[in-house]
Amino acid sequence: MTVVHADREIGRAAGHIRADTNLKLPDSLIVATAIVTGCDALVGNDERCAKRVKDIPYIYLDDAVGRGS
After folding, report:
1. Per-residue DSSP letters for 3-21?
2. In whole angstroms, what is the distance from residue 36 CA to residue 31 CA?
3. CA 18/CA 1 separation, integer angstroms
4. Are 49 and 57 in contact (CB under 8 A)?
C-alpha cells in the first residue's frame, strides 16, 4: 500500500468525477487518486460507486465472490 497526498491534480479530477457521477466527495477522491496515480483497478464493496465509476475498472467484491445480486 502507498500513501498518496492529495494535490491539485487529484482535487481537480475529483471535482470532475463528482460532477459526472454524483458520488460523495470521499469516493470521488478515491477514484481520482486511483486514476491519477495509474492504478489498474479499484476494489471495493460499494455498489453505488461500482455502478457509477466508468473511468477505471471497479472490482465489486460481492460479484467477485459470487454473492452479488
Report:
1. -----HHHHHHHHHHHHHH
2. 9
3. 25
4. no
Other beta carbons less than 10 A from residue 62's beta carbon: 12
Which residue carries 471535482 as its cell? 15
State how far the alpha carbon of 37 is from the alpha carbons of 2, 8, 11, 53, in Å.
Answer: 10, 13, 13, 16
Give pLDDT, residue 66.
79
End-to-end Cα separation, the chain, in angstroms:
30
Taking the complete model, does pTM exceed 0.90, yes or no?
Answer: no
pLDDT confidence of residue 65? 86
CA nearest neighbour of 45 among 62, 69, 67: 62
The residue type of 43 is: V
